[in-house]
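Run log, item B.
One chain of 729 residues. Sequence copied directly from the ordering sheet:
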Amino acid sequence: MNVYIETKNGIPALMIDGKEFDGGVATISSNIDGVLRLQEDYYERLGKAGIRLFFIICDTSFTRENGFDLFREEAKAILRAVPNAYIIPRVGLQPTRSWTDAHPEAMVGWSDGCSRPTTIRSESYNAEVGAAYSLHSPIWRKEAGEALLSFAEQADRETFGDRIIGYFLAAGSTSEWLPVARLVLTGDAFYDTSENFLAVYNDYVHKKYGTSAPPLPDNEARRYILEFDRDVKAMRGGGPRGQESAVPRGGCFATYPENRRTVDFYMAWGEGVADSILYFASLLKKQFSQKIVGAFYGYNRVVHQSGNFTGLSKLFHSPLLDFCAAPGDYENRQPGGWEALRTPFDSYRLHNTLFFAEDDTRTHKENPYYRSAYGVYTEEDACHLIKRNFGKKLCGGNLAWWFDQHHGGGRYDSPEILGLLKKQSEIWAQAIQRGRYKQNEIALVFDTESRIAASHETSHLSVTLMNNFSLGRIGAPYDQYLLDDLENESMPDYKLYIFAAAYVLRENQRAFIHKKLQKNNATALWLYGAGYIDPDAETTASCANCEKLTGFSVQKRDDRVYDGYFKITAKHPAVIGTRQGHIYGRCDEPMNQNENLHAYEPRPYAYPLFYTEDAQILGRYCEGNGGALAVKEYNGFTSLFCGAKFLQYDLVRCIAKSAGCHIYSDDGDVIYAGSGYLTIHASTGGEKTIHLAHPCTPIEVYENKKYGENTDLLRFFMTEGETKMFKLF
């Protein structure tokens, strides 16, 4: 059996013996900490609903002595229930307590020389250990790799060996290649200071600068990440009245060259993890070249802690890794919300790399805590969320697996849900036959190093929270990329580019950004601090750097500004339809962290505050009255300066309209469009109006009902949390 990835119409497809896979995908938590619970009748019902690819959570002998036996038992149970199923083992590479005790040289090192007990957690394995193992350790790679290869060879000899189409590598915290301990400060100590990481760090710095590495950054060098966010607490009463804590000189940014090695630390850490993934992938590819290999990687949030983001480009440019995966974000998942993907998933398309979303959509079959957290009380609630997330996958151009985390399964085991999955399998197969495609006109772009060189909350607001709480409701679909992809000739051209974290840019990057924008006189929306830092410039952090990128004469205030909120103050096509007198630059909606039953409101503290009096001012700050939003024509494109870190969806929609983007809806609902389908998930109840891109005969696929003939306008009523999907061909 020959399994590979092939890009079709710009979308990577999973190919099995020359045919695109057209079935559903699932993972069932059958193996929890070595206790196997199998429900073959449930597998059978899933198979009848169109699920034909199963990821099996398992371990090698390196982690658990009977790891392969448990895998074999589950694989045989699945194939008895679903004879035409395919299998991808999700293989754990975690060490045991006895191994970590015997190999202190493979553990992470702390700056104070002390070890810290921790817990290694995965779906199938939990162990209290005396120290965290290093994801860069050569001895761990070697011994875990030998066990992985032995596992794969044994699996290939089984009667079901021909049903195994690939391997999913699992290591680190929760098997997601995250550091077993957080990469931020812990008291007065930090890690990783081990010889394992020092070799990775030296290699990274040597390749980047052609010189030997400076010492690892100490606590003080890392404080720009945390101290900015701590400092602002004093402004809202977190400290004694009138007392001001020390603030790093760069405010919410790293300073160059002082913090260069701190930025390099995090960049090197993630690239080193990518090297480990490629090491294991190389072992499998050498012997099983006709199978695909993947791993969790590319997490676009808490980047200073995750450690599995900065090596994404390295994975893209390697022939060894065929797919990456990540769960959807654990925010805004409730009915009426939308669950953003936590990775720049359209970058994968440029590199023939498949992206799988781990979709653990909660249903009415959860316990009361989770039913309340996710607002899923009834079977109808659950079906509308499953419809929403299926629409995201089909229209968005990625694959996904339904993740049933109930021991032995049961999350999706109801007649209505299984019937829905069967219907979706039919829709998916039809879409595959016609050919999937994307024609979006808006791109969100952010830079890897910029995310590392800013405080957590700074880039978190502009990238993660814009994804989670704003862009999904602008009324038009959008794509998202790493900034360096703009240099890739295969990247489509867009009408609107939103630069959400582009603080650190060099001359060559400014050049290819301008070249891309000039191709079709596009519109660039530059969020907070775009272009502020040029590590190669004589003055590394300056407003002059901003001007070279955006064309605006930018100024800054270095005193601590509380929020950076602004109001619209002018009439211009880019702000027609905004709420006059409304405060922009903040999230107006409840920001739900569903998993923890918690709502929060991050403050977009502006330190420094960037403003302009150049060109046409569209909005002014509430505090200080400086120009917060402005527009001008510059160097062959339309340039929009924005001093805020976060923008509400209605303002982004207005800017998109002025850029010539097609807007399907002005109602603030969640919209996905692509491959000839349109999905709407109602954020509010009431009458909805959809403006189609071209006249057609729209058919709602779940109702099998026409909503007009040869029309480009749809009107209908929806309740909050309801989902509809229209076939537009």
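Observations after the first pass:
- The longest strand covers residues 686-696.
- Confidence is low (pLDDT under 50) at residues 228-248.
Flagged for discussion on Thursday.
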